[in-house]
Prior knowledge:
By secondary structure, the chain is mainly α. It has helices spanning 5-34, 39-63, 81-109, 112-127, 135-149, 151-158. Helix 1 runs antiparallel to helix 2 (39-63) and helix 3 runs antiparallel to helix 5 (135-149).
Amino acid sequence: MKGNPQVIAGLQEAADMEGSMMLQYLLDQRDVKRLGLDLADGLKQMKEQCEDHMKCLVSRVLFLEGAPTIELKPAATHDSVTEILNDAFAAEQAAIARFTDLCKQCYDAGDMSNFHFYQHLVKWHREGDDKFKGHVAWLQKQLYQLKKLGENDYIAVSAVKD
Length: 162
């Protein structure tokens, strides 16, 4: 089934975003794991979910007879847990905004399957499901605790209990 070129380009862009977030979460997970923080478990789940989303997006590109390529943005290194969480939150907000735009693009193109898939991605990144809180909801909780406790106390509370 030959798909709309704009829809294919949007799917490709979304796959690149998910892949870039996956790479960033992988690096962030490694860094907080080295600090001995249980925050690494949440980042690992977010990385795995981004990877799953990227695979779904690539499958949709293939279904529409596109030629998928993944162009990842380089992952950033951070000097603090605060930077990790703030950058992750900003990336999630940007992804949600772009998925919302792509949702409208698919609706205008009459591609209801991808329209609904983008709606699912927006909901997932915001709210999650029964097993895992959405990325934004989870990050908001971490940022709230960080603000209330300060970084040093947040790190002390987040340390993995051996």
